[in-house]
Amino acid sequence: MRSGLTAEMLSGPAADLYRQLVPGVPMRDRWVAEIRDLWGKKDHPSLNDFPEVEVSEICLASLDAGIDVRVTVCTPPKPSTHAFVYLHGGGWIAPASGKHLGWAKRIAALSGQTVAAVHYRLAPEDRYPCALHDCVGVFLAMKKMFTGQVTVGGDSAGANLAAALWFFCHGRGMSLPEKLMLNCGVLDLNLEKHASMRRSGKDHPYNGLELLAFQRAIYAPDEELWTDPCASPAHGDLGSLPQTLVIVGEDDTLCDDGVDFANRARSAGAPVRLHIGKKMPHGFHMQHRLVPQAAAEAEEMILTFLKPSSF
Fold first, then answer.
1. Which of 28, 47, 186, 222 is deepest in the core (most CB within 10 A)?
2. Given pLDDT bands bounded at 50, 70 and 90, which one contains residue 1?
3. Which strand ranges, in their side-by-side order, compose the sheet holding 54-61?
4. pLDDT per residue over 146-180, tens digit each?
5. CA separation (Å) from 165 to 169, 194, 281?
């Protein structure tokens, strides 16, 4: 039912009260619609940059039978044999925006690598593990298409999916990405665990605990998933990680999530680099027009990292 009211609610003794409380679209769905409208805007000035990059659309198979996943492919003029599978942010709720696709074009142009931006299924219509299964399916197809290095990475919820993809494939003996890039990621679904979240997450105007907890409830509502490495990658065997770049903003509520992930992985022997954007908020690495110096510093790390055998 469109209102979210079940048949049991509408046939029970509180039916009239339920109708009064939920006269139309439930609040959850209103919030999801607003998030998608705000974060999923198709237009962005960066889409006009790097016109030499060819942008095309293909469909690749999800791990889930019968599901085709749309992929935006950004191909530079003289592409190398390497590829970057990019998983966009948006709290597992919002679609890839013009900002995300503009950044994919930029990285393709500057790295010389083909960038594949994955339009994975979104919650709440498709909860965990649907998005992960889409990303894994696309990665496995890209791994067959490119003879060189294949990096998987993303920002925010996309970074979560990238790290989760590693643990999913590693645990099942599947092909693995040579590198992981985790930008401002939600790596531990135990959000309240880290000091930066406890310190500034409450009443934060941009990336606060209230908003992140809502996203978590939409994507992975079952508490047992919050310690499952395929949903909450910080709980995986971090020593198994490949070459990994972790980028965080110092003023991001998720800062300590990323820092702790990187430090524990390095202590376990994994080849992990950490870059901290000084006084930077969530997602600063792709905001070249607003924080050019900080974005350029992060970009230098990213482009160096994408080069084969950069460690």
1. 186
2. very low
3. 54-61, 68-75, 114-119, 83-87, 150-155, 179-183, 243-249, 272-277
4. 999 999 999 999 999 999 999 999 999 999 999 99
5. 6, 23, 25
* Tens-place pLDDT, residues 218-242: 999 999 999 999 999 999 999 999 9
pLDDT at 299: 98
Q: What is the mean pLDDT of residues 112-137?
A: 98
Cβ atoms 46, 102 nearer than 8 A: yes
Q: Using 50, 70 and 90 to split pLDDT, how confident is the model at 23?
A: confident
Q: What residues have CB less than 8 Å from 272, skipping those under 6 apart?
A: 241, 243, 244, 245, 246, 262, 265, 266
Measured in residues, the chain has a length of 311
Residues 6+ apart with CB under 8 A from 160: 92, 154, 185, 186, 187, 231, 232, 233
pLDDT over 90 (residue 101): yes
Mean pLDDT, all residues of the chain: 96
CA–CA separation, 37 and 32 (whole Å): 9
Q: What is the 3-state secondary structure (H, E, C) of the chain?
A: CCCCCCHHHHHCCCHHHHHHHCCCCCHHHHHHHHHHHHHCCCCCHHHHCCCCCEEEEEEEECCCCCCEEEEEEEECCCCCCCEEEEECCCCCCCCCCHHHHHHHHHHHHHHCCEEEEEECCCCCCCCCCHHHHHHHHHHHHHHHHCCCCEEEEEECHHHHHHHHHHHHHHHCCCCCCCEEEEECCCCCCCHHHCHHHHHHCCCCCCCCHHHHHHHHHHHCCCHHHHHCCCCCHHHCCHHHCCEEEEEEECCCCCHHHHHHHHHHHHHCCCCEEEEEECCCCCCHHHCCCCCHHHHHHHHHHHHHHHCCCCC
pLDDT number for residue 112: 98
